[in-house]
Amino acid sequence: MANNFEYFSPTRVVFGKETEKQTGKLIREYGGSRVLVLYGGKSAVRSGLLDLVKESLKEEELYFQELGGIVPNPHLDKVYEGIEIGKNEGIDFLLAVGGGSVIDTAKAIAYGLGEPEKDVWELYEHTRKARKCLPVASVLTIAAAGSETSRSSVITNEKTLEKRAYDDNLARPKFAIMNPEFTKTLPDYQTESGCTDIMMHTIERYFTNGGNMEITDALAEGLLRTVMENAKILHTEPDNYDARAEIMWAGSLAHNDLTGCGNDGGDFMSHKLEHELGGMFDVTHGAGLAAIWPSWARYVYKYCLPRFVKYAKNVMGVTSGGSDEETALLGIKAMEEFYHSIGMPVNLKELGIHPTEEQIREMAEGCLKASGSSTGSAKKLDLQDMIRIYQMANEA
């Protein structure tokens, strides 16, 4: 039985070749006049995209300041730096030229400038809710996080090693410009980590115990099969424009809530468990998800068996005539084989880390704190459950 739901996805998407030339015009259209341009400093610069974007802003006679050097698992200190620039320069619009880390930083700065008298980190600690936020938009360079059309952002407090998320419709980007050409400069590992993140945003809405809709399942399953097919293509043909276009659009659809309509809200425990890995070890997000998901899946599948069976058959192509439990386990194994086929890890050893028992407990306690209580849909996880999943991923 389907749950009631509300679907809200207001971001305007401008997709295709040379769309970056419209950036300045779109900012004008959405009321921006003094822009803070954010970027990481690698692909956006190397590809020439940043120069093209700045030229577009100059053509519209927009005032702008720049803030580069944003890193994966973006840091709170950079957010504070951007807030100070925004205050001093009278910034009224945030433009992210990059991927999820840059967009998430833009959202956090936008919250901070919306309520400059308050500490923005309080939002990520969930001690208050945002009341105001400056407008945000993006020119996307990495297909992965889906932050370009979502209400989510994730920031790492590098002093406490806490990686925390805050979701609010106030920060939904006004527009997202997507030219797949500008993802071609990414290393293969980063491309495939992005594909993994896209899949996980859909998978975590799929494995629920609280009701589902067939049309939503069909959308999710089709998206997952498409991402898997094109991830394999890009592993050997990194310049394939059509494959990059498929992946880029899938990234937005996977995290704008479309693939969860009618579900119970989803099970985002793999993401929450990975956030602690990212906060402590600064691992690549998608690779961290690939390393934790198989252990999570083997730990919870019996509690959500019909969904695991359906996933095995409809997404992974399992045709075994065995029991439901055998089919579910074959689906998990097939997922691991897919990860390996695109160069992704399936455990913490392959990810390149080996946390101690003390670190595992610290991560589990952090995950429980960030969640607020035992949480999950496939299976509600408490502290001991989280510890065991980390241990399984560490022992595999």
From TrEMBL:
Segments forming domain Fe-containing alcohol dehydrogenase-like C-terminal: 195-392
Alphabetical list of SUPFAM superfamilies matching this protein: Dehydroquinate synthase-like (SSF56796)
Pfam family, one: ADH_Fe_C
Ranges for domain Alcohol dehydrogenase iron-type/glycerol dehydrogenase GldA: 10-180
Keywords: Oxidoreductase
CDD domains: BDH (cd08187)
InterPro entries membership: ADH_Fe/GldA (IPR001670), ADH_Fe_C (IPR056798), BDH-like (IPR044731)
Protein name: Iron-containing alcohol dehydrogenase
